[in-house]
């Protein structure tokens, strides 16, 4: 067992790291890379995100005749992530049940720092390696979206930000549209003259009842996640605000589902003499890695060399992988073994920290 990566992880997870406040983790990473003899720099993405930390970029020069590989993890975690206390037993490192653990994604960060240490000590050799540590992934992939890749000449990339057994690769993920719909009716006294009002809540309900929500097909989903509005129980509800999303690995299906939902909202509002305001954002685009892509070929070979079961899966959520892929670098999202993430039950197997760090070392060496 390589205790170095475990110790690295334990040093990282006790650091507070909410989105827009990754400063402690960033300072730790910068200090470690400097200690290993590497130059790293922090960009100014925080000027856009409104946080106190930028993305960290480090290039480790290697054999110019070998592939140039990029690895990426994010520095932030979901709340509650302040005051984390890891609990260790024979198999797992777990959260204390008062906070999350932070293996999402500090397990990826620790593995990348272990790779940097192995390269510095000549325990492994390869081509150029780029280490990227992003900010504010958990609140919209903001660090990756504001990452300048123009000076990063990587042939392909691995994003260490997925769960499941080590050896699992997400070869695709959907495009994502988020939207907000505001339906405005007419207020009136609910007890004295309700007939003079138009209840926006009722109109919204009529529209929603006509929609297919949830699993549309094997690659498409839709959700209405937040509904808010109304001022008091004795006032006919004047305005309702609905936040939702559509996802699909098929761009044509994504647009079709989104347009169908908006048509239902618009037609129902018109039928009930209300007004509507719709805003939407394309959060990210889908990606798909083929069996012929070098990133997947190298990953499968590394798994074979470690006698790890190799597994391909199609993801249903977004990650920095979507953004890196859209910026022109073929990227594969691979598992670090993180388990029960985004909950106070979060945990990771100690052995998985070893496996993922060894796996990426082999990838570099191939």
Can you summarize this structure?
With 366 residues, this protein is an alpha+beta fold.
List the helices and strands and how they pair.
Blueprint: H1 3-13, H2 23-35, E1 40-42, H3 46-49, E2 56-60, E3 69-74, E4 87-88, E5 92-94, H4 103-120, E6 129-134, H5 142-145, E7 156-163, E8 168-173, E9 175-184, H6 200-209, E10 214-217, E11 220-229, E12 239-248, H7 251-271, E13 275-284, E14 287-288, H8 294-305, E15 311-314, H9 320-326, E16 331-338, E17 347-349, H10 350-365
Parallel strand pairs: 3-6, 3-7, 7-16, 8-15
Antiparallel strand pairs: 1-2, 2-6, 4-5, 5-17, 8-14, 8-16, 9-12, 9-13, 10-11, 11-12
Helix pairs in contact: 1-4, 1-10, 4-10, 6-7, 8-10
For the report, how would you describe the main beta sheet? 9 strands, mixed
- The CATH superfamily of the largest domain bears the name Zn peptidases
* Name given to the CATH architecture of the largest domain: 3-Layer(aba) Sandwich
- Rg to the nearest angstrom? 23 Å
SS class: alpha+beta
CATH level 3 topology of the largest domain: Aminopeptidase
Shape: elongated
Low-confidence runs:
none
Number of strands: 17
> H/E element string?
HHEHEEEEHEHEEEHEEEHEEHEHEEH
- By DSSP (H or I, 4+ residues per run), the number of helices equals 10
Residue-averaged pLDDT = 96
Ends apart, CA distance between termini: 22 Å
- The CATH class of the largest domain, by name, is Alpha Beta
């Amino acid at each position: 067992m390589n205790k170095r990566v475990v110790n690295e992880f334990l040093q990282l997870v006790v650091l507070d790291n909410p989105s827009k406040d990754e400063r402690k983790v960033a300072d730790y990473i910068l200090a470690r890379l400097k200690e290993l003899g590497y130059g790293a720099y922090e960009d100014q993405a925080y000027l856009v995100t409104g946080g106190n930390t930028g993305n960290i970029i480090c290039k480790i020069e290697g054999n110019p005749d070998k592939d140039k590989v990029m690895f990426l993890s994010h520095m932030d975690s979901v709340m509650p992530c302040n005051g984390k206390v890891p609990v260790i037993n024979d198999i797992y490192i777990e959260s204390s049940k008062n906070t999350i653990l932070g293996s999402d994604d500090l397990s990826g960060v620790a593995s990348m720092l272990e790779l940097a240490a192995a390269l510095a000590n000549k325990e492994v050799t390869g081509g150029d390696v780029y280490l990227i540590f992003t900010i504010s992934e958990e609140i919209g992939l903001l660090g990756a979206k504001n990452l300048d890749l123009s000076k990063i000449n990587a042939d392909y990339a691995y994003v260490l930000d997925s769960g499941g057994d080590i050896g699992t690769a997400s070869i695709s993920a959907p495009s994502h549209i988020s939207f907000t719909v505001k339906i405005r009716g007419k207020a009136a006294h609910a007890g004295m003259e309700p007939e003079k009002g138009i209840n926006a809540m009722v109109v919204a309900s009529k529209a929603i009842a006509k929609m297919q929500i949830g699993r549309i097909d094997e690659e498409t989903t839709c959700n209405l996640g937040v509904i808010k509005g109304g001022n008091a129980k004795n006032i006919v509800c004047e305005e309702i605000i609905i936040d939702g999303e559509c996802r699909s690995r098929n761009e044509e299906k994504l647009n079709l589902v989104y347009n169908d939902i908006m048509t239902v909202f618009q037609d129902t509002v018109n039928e009930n003499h209300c007004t509507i305001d719709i805003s939407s954002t394309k959060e990210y685009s889908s990606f798909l890695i083929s069996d012929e892509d070098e990133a997947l070929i190298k990953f499968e070979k590394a798994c074979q060399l470690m006698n790890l079961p190799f597994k391909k899966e199609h993801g249903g959520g977004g990650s920095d992988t979507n953004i890196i892929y859209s910026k022109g670098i073929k990227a594969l999202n691979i598992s670090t073994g993180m388990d029960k993430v985004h909950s106070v039950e979060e945990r990771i197997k100690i052995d998985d920290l070893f496996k993922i760090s060894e796996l990426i070392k082999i990838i570099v060496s191939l």
